[in-house]
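re: ur question from yesterday

yeah so i grabbed the chain u mentioned. its 257 aa long if i counted rite. heres the sequnce exactly as i have it in my notes:
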Amino acid sequence: MLSRLITAEAKKILYLKWSRIYLLVTVLASPAFGLLLSLTTRMTTGRAFVDLLPREVLSMNLLGVDLANIMLIVFTAMSISREFSTKSIQVSLALTPTRTHLLTARLATVFGLSLVFSLITVSAAYLVSQMLLVAHQMPLLGLTDVGIARMLVGVMVMPVFYCVLTAAAAFAFWSGAGAVTFSLCVLAVQALVGLFPEDIQTWLMPFTPQSAVHNLAGMNPPDSWESVSLVVSAAVLVMWATATILVASWRLQRKDV
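ran it thru and got these structure tokens back, copy pasting raw so excuse formatting
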């Protein structure tokens, strides 16, 4: 039953032409943005490209995944909110009396699709970095390097987490705009915590999603407040997502549609 629901949810998303075009633009825009940053390092960092370390080149290109992350957040919210505005959600609920099954299917679908596109955009960033390093006769990035592999996997977690969060928030707020606003606010929590005194930052910073993502990717300095165990960082993301999903489930159960 659940597998059929997931298949149906995936078809609903990918069947529409605008969805396919939007996702294609996302895939193309992500490496293009990273490449643009790499070609303008003198303006953005004040350093020539050849003065960068290979790891810095990869980090710069992975910023394109940040762009893809925001685009996927918007896409997820739009896909779900369209069902609310067109009332097609009523048909889905009529065919699936157990509302939690519908929510579970949608979250599973979003998880799967975001994982695929996260893998594509991160792989594209890595390949673009390699090509730039070859073009400038600089050392290449080996996937056998634990630090490089950790960075790629950690960054790959980001779009998956925020897309699932957005999907749950769409049901929690019953609004696409509310879901996008919520996800962007969660994205900005790290910056907000940074405005507090250091004593408060020490306690709160490791529990912000962006700090958790950066820690999973090995981007935090070893002596920073954000450097905690990988288990703690993974638990932080799970707790944020779980809390939002629980609210979404509670709201969906009580929503009169």
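noticed a couple things. The chain has a mean pLDDT of 89. also Residues 99-135 form the longest helix (37 residues).
anyway ttyl
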